[in-house]
Design goal:
With 273 residues, this protein is an alpha/beta fold. The chain has one domain: NAD(P)-binding Rossmann-like Domain (Rossmann fold). The protein is built from 10 helices and 12 strands. Helices cover 41% and strands 15% of the residues. A 7-stranded mixed beta sheet has the order 3-2-1-4-5-8-12, sandwiched between helices. Strands 10-9-11 form a 3-stranded parallel beta sheet. A hairpin with a 4-residue loop joins strand 6 and strand 7. Helix 1 crosses helix 3 and helix 9 runs parallel beside helix 10.
Amino acid sequence: MASIAVIGTGYVGLVSGACLADFGNTVTCVDIDEKKIEKLKNGQIPIFESGLSDLVAKNVAAERLSFTTDASLAIQAAEVIFIAVGTPPSDDGSADLRYVEEAARTIGRTIDNYRVVVDKSTVPIGTGRRVKGWIAEELAARAPHLGAPVSPCHCAVSIPFDVVSNPEFLREGSAVYDFMHPDDELGDNGGGDSQSPSPRRSLDRLEIDQPACSMSEETTDVVYDRVRESRLKPPFSAATTSGAAASESAGTSSRVSQIKTLVSISSPTVSVK
């Protein structure tokens, strides 16, 4: 089991936090909206989703799920940090990433040892690299105060971290079921820093029982882009770190071909987590 912080208690964050807690993890959901957090602490669920109210009540009672406005405290206690904030459309129709950036910078200002940061918000492809950059910038700004050496892998103080893409494709009305019953998972081959713990090991501790296929961020981007173009939701969850790309070996090319085929025939009724 793992200790988890979920930043954002909207539709995605609340469903994800409650479900992860039900797997047996210890989850703290964070939001800057004090009134919303107070309502959640009192058992008032701001959205309707089948089974969610009971799931929240069950895991709060079991002391596996809690709510706070103190992001720093939640981040310090977590091994895995989910970013599940809103990404409203900008004037030009693109996703507004200001809240994602704010969450990432808060993480960079707070972490004191290895963390896995998970992009759960609905974001454009390549956001993982931007999140990694924002965290690294905040770590770099802390370097003089910490007196720590610069890490060439993370361009910051020597606090390793990995960023994982875990896009949200939950269906409204059946989001709890979709989260609890993923068919498969795409993962990375490991982080960009060989001295860092494997993000795969950290994510394994979330106790999500499903098959996994390991690949690089770039490979998963190809798959995710295919999904976006086809407007289909594939029968797997997509998770990849923004570490160094895996070499394009024959084995990797074969996996990409297999996954492309899988995406092209996938059912639109299964979620990507």
